[in-house]
Design brief:
Mean pLDDT: 91
Helix content: 55-70%
Low-confidence stretches: none
Largest sheet: none
Strand content: under 5%
Number of strands: 0
Number of domains: 1
Structural class: mainly alpha
Number of helices: 3
Distance between the termini: 16 Å
């Protein structure tokens, strides 16, 4: 797996997790506060699209995980 796919997978997982824990209709509901995690992930993805800065991608690069050819993560 390359860095781009890992970033997308982790972001998707955290959005789904926060919705599961933060939406009252969910059987996993704990608190509405978990919806702020979805806001944080979305805002981070949004700013990453403009600036190219992605904290998770930087961590993955330090761990030696490569980008795909022409990938979004730098």
């Amino acid at each position: 797996m390359n860095a781009e796919r890992i970033v997308r997978s982790v972001a998707g997982f955290f959005v789904l997790l926060s919705l599961g824990l933060g939406a009252e209709a969910s059987p996993l509901f704990l608190s509405h506060g978990y919806l702020w995690l979805a806001v944080f992930v979305g805002a981070n993805l949004f700013q990453s699209g403009f600036t190219g800065l992605c904290p998770l991608a930087n961590i993955l690069h330090k761990l030696g995980i490569k980008d795909s050819a022409g990938g979004c993560c730098k």
